[in-house]
Amino acid sequence: MGYREIARGKQEQRRQRISKDWILAREHLASSNLLKVPEVCGILTGRELEITGKYDAVGLVEKIANGSFSAREVTLAFCKRAAIAQQLTNCLTEIFFEDAIQRAEELDRERAANPGTPLRPFHGLPISLKDSFKIPGYDSVIGMTCFANDPDQTYSPLAQLLLDAGAVLYCKTNVPQTMMTADSDNNVFGRTLNPTNINVTAGGSSGGEGALIAMRGSILGVGTDIAGSVRIPSHCNGIYGLRTSVGLVPMAGQKDPVAPGTDGVAPIAGPMATSLRACEHFMKTVAKSSAWKYDESCLHLNRWDTRPKHTNIRIGVAYNDGMFTPWPPVRRSMQQAVSKLRSAGIEMVDLKMPDLHEAVSTTYRMYSLDGCRFVQNLIKQGEEPEVESVKRTNLAAIPSATLDDFFALNAARSKVKEDFQKFWLDHELDALLCPPAATTATPLDEWKCITYTMLWNLLDYPALIIPIGKVTDQDVVDGVENAIFGEEDQQNYKLYTGPEDFKNVPTTTQLIGMRQEDDRLMGVAKMVDEALHSQSGPSKP
Amino acid sequence: MGYREIARGKQEQRRQRISKDWILAREHLASSNLLKVPEVCGILTGRELEITGKYDAVGLVEKIANGSFSAREVTLAFCKRAAIAQQLTNCLTEIFFEDAIQRAEELDRERAANPGTPLRPFHGLPISLKDSFKIPGYDSVIGMTCFANDPDQTYSPLAQLLLDAGAVLYCKTNVPQTMMTADSDNNVFGRTLNPTNINVTAGGSSGGEGALIAMRGSILGVGTDIAGSVRIPSHCNGIYGLRTSVGLVPMAGQKDPVAPGTDGVAPIAGPMATSLRACEHFMKTVAKSSAWKYDESCLHLNRWDTRPKHTNIRIGVAYNDGMFTPWPPVRRSMQQAVSKLRSAGIEMVDLKMPDLHEAVSTTYRMYSLDGCRFVQNLIKQGEEPEVESVKRTNLAAIPSATLDDFFALNAARSKVKEDFQKFWLDHELDALLCPPAATTATPLDEWKCITYTMLWNLLDYPALIIPIGKVTDQDVVDGVENAIFGEEDQQNYKLYTGPEDFKNVPTTTQLIGMRQEDDRLMGVAKMVDEALHSQSGPSKP
């Protein structure tokens, strides 16, 4: 079977798993405001619109807990809304709505049978997962034809943990071919669209999650991030997303586009959600579940203490990373954010980032130790062409490293980490605020700017995306001479063509904490989030 | 300069740093009981014998704190006793007694000037360090001629941490050439002898520490351990020693016999001491010092909670590791220990260890990823021959690995770790008791049996040596047919030639805890140590 046929088969299978009653009328598919379609298409009842539209994950768990909603009706509502999101943005890969509804019914029965038993932290909450997480009986294609029609046998450890915490799993979400680009486009399932504006990328590699959550087809999902794969789609779709420290959230047992045992920069799993407190609830639940019992590589930390270290917190601000000049809307929203935070009485310290060229080149080389041979072989096995965003990475030209090179890279990374920690301690930071990228969501296949996200992967610092607003009419194009970091920066800067082309595209900010202190970062983030959204804002729970 | 001349120079320099008044009379050098010499040689005053002989590190810190002893007199006493230990066992490398006494005087003055200020946790306590730790102005030869006469510029992070905690640093201790064998013998400083019986090895690579502490020339020192280098000399010399979990104690910034950035099995730094509570005090002090501020690779754990997880603790017992048959004294002391622990009401569960062949071969290959080329080059640079124990490792025959091999080894290790964790959880263990080796201290250059120690390095589980007693007349030789694990096992078994040859040689046991739960292991160890030494025993504080 050729790759096109395989794709047709997989897409047909996916379509079959959506009830006929949930198929959108043609007019809605062509809507100019995809985010509004769930409310106007008539597929969800008023109560289902309330369930999916009014609460964040914590609020919804509370509503289930107090008996306002059953697990079944919550699950059904999200299955419907996810089905709509799928039709509009192509965000899903595997659909298992029927299993989910069965599971929800079991949870309802369990609860009815044991009314005195305290509910688990995710009791009845539908949680979506990036395609790389394994669910028995379903594929983990991760954008590669060669993995189609090869159902998994076991749950990934994190999926198991979430089930043990009472969650309902109902769908998996789309990624790029190779999982290595920021455009969630592949030959099996096609491209995920950004529901805020279909002319810009939904981001990647957890782009399906980004689009699904922006559509509120999910209010809490899990992505993975080795260079920005949780944060870029969170940024592009205007949701919360956390790049967790390595070893806090089980990452083991996923389908992988690299050889087993690959070292270098470690990928992490992290929450993506419609609220900050949903991310916190996720992290706390994982911490309290002894994550290491699910994935032996997890730290025996078990701590969840969000109290900041100081009463008067101090946040550094880096307006750029010295590699890419922020676009006008990014600049403007950073300035507004900082001024709001200052008004809220938080000490904000303008900083110049240390020179990152060494860090960036070390990181790039660590991403491709095997010269990306493993993933190229996967593409070859699938007898499929590279999609555009993969083509642009020019995989064949990436050199491989020797073991000695790898050791030298380890040593270089240690130096970068030492220097950066010194920078952090010298400035007595509780957190650092910087853009998640120089850009908003870019035109399709044009994402170049991963320096703002990948630095925190190299350093292993937790980094959180907090939505701010969107591109506004103030964000007029300015001259390319404002891009001061060289040729590549100018190319990137020119991609911004003004507020008309980027209508409704989200703006966000990135808040970074100290390594393995994700709990403390969350404590600071609560203050920041509150200050940013005190008067208005799209993202209050 | 040839290597012999360099050695003469270094040894002469070392001799110069011992006051003439502290030189032992010839008769004492030939004593048949080295451990007694400090008490009978007349160099230490009665008060100095009390200071060095009567307390463990915690007790001594208390005595300094309550004003019974000044930091200066404590330091002077240990300098004297270390000088004696050096003359008897050749355990020291760099000596900086004068700096130490100055430092102690400063501490005394500081205290007198600020009588109300609480003392730091190591105020005035002399702590000895393995030769690999750097002290400005002194060499870190680590047994390699090429590193002689090249004084360091900075403190190793852990040395700095200890100073910040009030410690007095006064000497560094001997190691094997390459730091990769269990015999602390090299061309620069020669061989360290075991003060319990000079016919058996002092162990290694932290063998100088082992001998020095057995002599009570130190009551708390720091070794490092990648395969057993803290535990083997602790075992051979009958002291406490902890292989800490990776990332708890700063390991960075030491002189290293491998290339910067070398990966594989990570070495750790850990305490060696005359008491369990000294090891605990060390670990707690490091934890409370935010170790990561000294060494960015340390975990942001900061936890020190020795409460066991269960009220009724449950300890697994593995009498052998399925690779090497324990010698008669090892067998006997394990049995006696288990029976004592059972009498004390601790639940002891006899277990058969999982098959370790895969783990052992993975570990060996991870130790020598570069085919030991780096260390061979160091030997070449020093234009020196290999010492006997290094010769026996046959460095030149060790193959190097490719990056793909390394990834495959990582994957193999993950599997071993998963399997072992399952074993641990299935048996609901709070700790595991097993011998530190199939042997006691062996005849010189004969140490083969690192499987009992290195497994915990591969798995990254904390492992503690607890002294039990010594070889007794009951420990008669038995037939080699009792060694049931093959040829190599039989060779090893035959090395035991009966209690006469192994007179006074210590027996110990090894208590293992769950990864990164060194604090909890210490909690269990307290109960074990108490039970083992409730009636008698050499090692009560």
From TrEMBL, chains A, B:
Per the Swiss-Prot or TrEMBL record, the active site comprises 130, 205, 229
Enumerate the Pfam families for this protein.
Amidase (PF01425)
The entry sums up its family as follows: Belongs to the amidase family.
Keyword annotations of the record: Hydrolase
Q: Does the keyword Hydrolase apply?
A: yes
Identify the InterPro entries for this entry. Amidase_CS, Amidase_dom, AS_sf
Q: What is its EC number?
A: 3.5.1.4
Q: Which GO terms describe its molecular function?
A: amidase activity
Lineage, please? Eukaryota, Fungi, Dikarya, Ascomycota, Pezizomycotina
The enzyme's main class, written as a single word, is hydrolase
Catalytic reaction equation(s): a monocarboxylic acid amide + H2O = a monocarboxylate + NH4(+)
PROSITE patterns xrefs: AMIDASES (PS00571)
The entry's protein name is: amidase
Residues annotated as binding substrate are 179, 205, 226-229
Organism source for this protein?
Answer: Cladosporium halotolerans
* Keyword flag Hydrolase: yes
Specify the Amidase domain's residue ranges.
Answer: 73-521
